[in-house]
Amino acid sequence: MKEESIGALKTALKYSPENIPLRLQLAELLLRKGELKEAEQHCKSALKYAPGDRRAKVLLASVYYLTREYSTAIVILEEVLSEYPKSVDALLLISRALLADGSKMQAAEYYRKALDIEPGAVDDELDEHLRLPAHEGLSAFEDDDYDDDDDDYDSEDYAFIEKPDINFKDVGGLDDVKKEIDLKIIKPLKFAELYKAYGKKAGGGILLYGPPGCGKTHIARATAGEIEAKFMNITIDDVLDMWIGNSEKNLHELFEIARNNKPCVMFFDEVDALGASRSDMRQSSGRHLINQFLAELDGIEKNNEGLLILGATNAPWHLDPAFRRPGRFDRVVFVAPPDEAARVSILKLMMKGKPVGKVDYQKVAAQTEGFSGADIAALIDLVIEDKLEASFSSGMAQSISTDDILKVIKKQKPTTREWFNTAKNYALYANESGLYDDILNYLKIKKA
Hints:
Layout: H1 2-15, H2 20-33, H3 36-49, H4 54-66, H5 70-83, H6 88-100, H7 104-117, H8 124-130, E1 161-162, H9 175-190, H10 192-197, E2 204-209, H11 216-226, E3 230-234, H12 236-239, H13 246-259, E4 264-268, H14 271-274, H15 285-298, E5 307-313, E6 329-334, H16 340-351, H17 361-366, H18 373-394, H19 402-409, H20 416-429, H21 437-443
Parallel strand pairs: 2-5, 2-6, 3-4, 4-5
Antiparallel strand pairs: 1-3
């Protein structure tokens, strides 16, 4: 029946190409059938005739969401919501896209807005991942078990505190990033007396940003190893809680643990999920968490000296500007995909301990421009799968050659491309302070 409907709509559109409702009905049927490319074409055709059509934009965003082009879907939906802020279908879709893109806090914010407008618009998948509270009004600070003065935290009780056994020698490339971290974090600890003479404290924060999979977590862990400090890898799940007020409590406790284990490197992964711009969070409990985070960074009530804070984000443009003020994340460092020399190092590291024949690492590295470290790891996994299949037939381990890797490279595309498509727009049109000049330099785009 669906096939007949699609055929009838296509016939009707031949005689009435400007009929927007017909075209969008066809696009919706194609979308349900999984014919995403054709659905996209009809959405774009509808927008040529009616550029502001809300339904066409939401359907187009749905296509991009299903093809995992999340950042493109988000940009379209943000535009829709700027004009139609109470569009529940747009709010739910942008929540799904943000969740898939790793922006959990923002996803929860949009989902709450959708439920405020239409309480019946509950989505089981979003509920499961965003863990919305059943009782919005209950504050964790009313809990008698919580004592703000109880700061006695024993590092032995917290499994996520570690002592890394790697340092900068174990990090391929990223020389500029190492230099910034050395100046801001490492030297103040090694030459504490010299810094004190100039009135400089040991501590502070650096924000690392760039496409996913480029080694932000690895460099943070290596930083702790370089100065023989303890390391806390903090994810949004360590902070966010379903009850209002508990997230602030969790964040405070994490900072107290770090303060009692100095020197300590606190690494906040996906920091934009905890510190999204407050201008997008009017009347939201998320604003309280951001204010708590800023207060902890400032160390107004507690001494943060010897506390070293690194944050990582794929979307620095979503971070509240207050986080970039002096004493907080006052150094913002771009972590680019590895250059050719670094890719050679990563490839050699990935191939270590495996049956390797003659491999021209330089040639392979030249063919992997734009690949992140994670992309290279995925590439080697695919090569190994191919060689395993060949090995099953012969019963012996087959050695990996240059040709084996080059054959797989032809099927692979760097995952960093979509990130740069989004980042380029921010660097060109939302870069008054020059914050994203490194992106333009990497893309070899001259600033206007």
